[in-house]
Write a structure and sequence with these properties.
Length: 709
């Protein structure tokens, strides 16, 4: 038997692990049922042509294969070693692998970081050993991998390989069970899966490492990622940008959306969202398709692999029920899927199909007419496929009996066969549990038409795919240039007067005013800036001034200012006895007629800076009406995000109020983004309110707080 060419020792450790020319397995037993025995069985069943070494402390031979007593006794340079042994023996085995120049190690054993402090210490030691020998490690607590391209499975699950005939899906999952589920589901749908990797605890080699490797592999068309934690967020975003450039989409399923699963946020603004929302904002803007369920992950992945190109426009949906049409309209609105209405040739064709029965609308309701005249498919489908108004076609037919299948399936297939244009097409079946011959399903899939037994799933997945297609078809997102790194700011809470000085220098408009330490200084400032004025108590320990009576407004002359000054000091003394103020901020009263926004920023410890904006402090907090934004988004992108707020109609014109200066708001939001990027030591900025005036009249930041680590 010819032997495969050995890997060069300069090959990457991941390449040696995933495409090994030699393998060693520890944990094979002469008794059936061992995990190591499952790995060996997979190797033998697939006809692995490389060297196979067995490790056993007492057996000299198992199943006709010679054993060595430990990893220390392996020949030099084995590409991949599978450790299917108790956790107590793992560290010594890994040390032996490092000493023998092994490329990568797969560790099935649990009992490491997931098992408390002692397990964490063992996992850190694994990482130290690997770092000193340039060795990849999958796991611990993982299920290994299945490489269908090379017909190789280093896992204990029984695997029947489906070698892909074209570039397919790569699956990277921290959960071994979920990796197996995705592979099995797509195998059942005859979707090519190139490779499936379970990363487990990621002591050494994480999801990001495998993604980077797989993006450069010719057999990878898209990557599905199941991650409970993205351990290197900034690197993940860089890889998302690389995937976008290579036109190899990343689909991410990331549990942790519920409030119970979120960690508390740092800022007042950020407290309305959790870390999952920060992740969602940044990865979706980076071009990642974020899905919420396993069903959606599987459906989206099938569409990515089967579609000749990703749609960037909404679909036309062909159905045969008025009730179904109404349900689709509701669901499409809920998931944000545009349904363009027929025009031109499509409108004329639909109008002529059955006048008075079939209307030229989207979704199209063919009624029961196809049972009478199956040629309606031939008359309608080619025109709809050729119409560039639509990015895709969904054929949603009732197949609730074998008779319906026989009557409809073949005419639909023949009509699609004749259609020109290569439009992405999905068959969405109504009658989920009804029997359909496997031959019929296979006929659709042979034409790269997904056959899905749920129109709801199709609409949800297609919304995600269409958004992704639009993002990939567009130029990479425009960004504003960050400011140069700013001077180091003093740690702690920066009170309003000093925060506004910083923000003014960064390009954010704030009311004219200054800090006064006596009523005499206050009068001088008021006379300079002009009455009426506001007084605001200033102290780093007084973040909620209004609650303590530390804000006095609408002071129209010197006498009112003197009275207001005395009242403010009395209020603070009552609410916070002994508090020493930095002084009192004397500011011009802001013009009336503005719409209040709330604007904030936080520097997430893992993901970096992110902005948050909403309409009205109370409304934003009570209703969760907040948009999170990347910090360097372009002005037109920021304006578009503002118009996605639930209360965006208030941006006007609305019920007699004028249109607001959204362009000015976008400029201020962009300036805040540049500011926080230039000062990475900032943990929080809170501007509440940011008052938005009618178009052409700008905005004003009336209150501000900056917190520095």
């Amino acid at each position: 038997m010819s032997q495969p060419t050995p890997h060069s020792r300069t090959s990457s450790p991941i390449a040696r692990m995933l495409s090994p020319r030699s393998v060693a397995v520890a944990g094979v037993s002469a008794k059936p049922g061992s995990l190591g025995g499952g790995v060996l069985a997979n190797l033998e069943r697939s006809g692995f042509k490389g060297d196979i070494h067995l490790i056993h402390p007492t057996q000299v031979e198992i199943g006709g294969r010679r054993c060595v007593p430990s990893a220390h006794d392996l020949p030099e340079g084995v590409d991949c070693v599978v450790l299917a042994i108790p956790g107590a023996g793992v560290l010594d085995a890994v040390k032996g692998c490092a000493a023998r120049g092994v490329g990568g190690v797969i560790i099935f054993s649990a009992g490491f970081a997931e098992a408390g402090a002692e397990g964490e210490a063992r996992q850190r030691e694994l990482a130290q050993i690997a770092a000193g020998s340039n060795m990849a490690i999958a796991g611990p607590n993982c299920l290994g991998f299945v490489n269908n391209v090379e017909t190789l499975a280093l896992t204990f699950s029984i695997v029947e390989h489906r070698k892909p005939s074209r570039p397919g899906l790569a699956v990277v999952s921290q959960s071994g069970a979920m990796a197996s589920v995705v592979r099995a589901a797509l195998d059942a749908r005859d979707v090519p899966v190139a490779i499936t990797v379970s990363t487990g605890n990621e002591a050494v080699t994480g999801a990001e490492d495998f993604i980077e490797h797989l993006l450069d592999e010719a057999h990878t068309a898209a990557i599905a990622v199941v991650a409970e934690q993205i351990r290197q967020p900034k690197r993940f975003l860089e890889l998302a940008a690389k995937a976008r450039t290579k036109k190899k989409p990343i689909v991410l399923l990331h549990p942790g959306r519920s409030k119970a699963a979120q960690q508390s946020a740092i800022t007042h603004t950020g407290a309305m969202t959790g870390d999952w929302e920060v992740m969602r904002t940044l990865v979706t803007h980076a071009g990642v398709a974020l899905v919420e369920t396993m069903d959606e992950l599987i459906d989206v992945c099938e569409m990515l692999i089967r579609f000749p190109r990703l749609p960037s426009k909404g679909p036309v949906i062909l159905g045969e029920s008025g009730a179904f049409k109404a349900m689709v309209l509701d669901l499409a609105e809920q998931v944000g899927l545009d349904l363009p209405q027929p025009t031109g040739a499509s409108h004329d064709m639909l109008s002529a199909l059955a006048p008075g029965l079939i209307l030229p609308t989207n979704p199209v309701d063919l009624t029961a007419q196809p049972l009478v005249d199956p040629q309606l498919y031939t008359k309608s489908l080619p025109t709809l496929v050729a119409d560039d108004t639509y990015g895709s076609l969904v054929v949603a037919m009732i197949l609730s009996s074998p008779a319906f299948v026989a009557r409809k399936a073949q005419p639909i297939l023949e009509a699609l066969e004749k259609a020109q244009g290569g439009k992405p097409t999905i068959f969405a079946m109504l009658g989920e549990d009804s029997y359909v011959s496997p031959d019929v399903i296979a006929a659709f899939r042979a034409r790269d038409i997904p056959f899905v037994r749920s129109p709801d799933r199709v609409v949800r997945a297609l919304a995600t795919v269409t958004r992704l297609g639009a993002a990939l078809a567009a130029k990479p997102p425009k960004t504003t240039a960050p400011n140069k790194a700013g001077a180091r700011l003093p740690p702690g809470v920066i009170p309003e007067h000093a925060a506004k000085t910083l923000l003014r220098a960064a390009g954010l408009p704030v009311p004219e005013g200054a800090l006064a330490r006596s009523v005499k200084e206050g009068l001088a400032i008021a006379n300079e800036i002009g009455f009426p004025v506001a007084l605001k108590a200033q102290s780093a320990a007084l973040s909620h001034k209004s609650d303590a009576g530390g804000v006095v407004l609408h002071l129209s002359d010197a006498a009112a200012l003197e009275e207001g000054w005395a009242r403010l000091l009395d209020n603070i003394a009552t609410a916070h006895p002994g508090m020493k103020l930095d002084g009192v901020l004397v500011e011009c009263m802001a013009p009336k007629g503005g719409l209040e926004l709330i604007l904030g920023a936080r520097n997430d410890p893992q993901w970096g800076p992110v902005l948050a904006v909403g309409l009205g402090g109370v409304q934003a907090e009570a209703l969760g009406d907040i948009r999170l934004l990347p910090p360097l988004l372009a002005l037109d992108e920021i304006a578009a995000e503002l118009h996605k707020l639930k209360a965006a109609r208030l941006l006007g014109p609305f019920r007699g109020t004028p249109a607001r200066d959204v362009a000015a708001a976008a400029q201020v939001i962009a300036a805040l983004g540049r500011f926080v990027v230039a000062h990475p030591q900032i943990t929080e900025v809170d501007i509440n309110p940011l008052v938005l005036y009618p178009a052409g009249q700008g905005v004003l930041a009336l209150d501000a707080l900056v917190v520095v680590a």
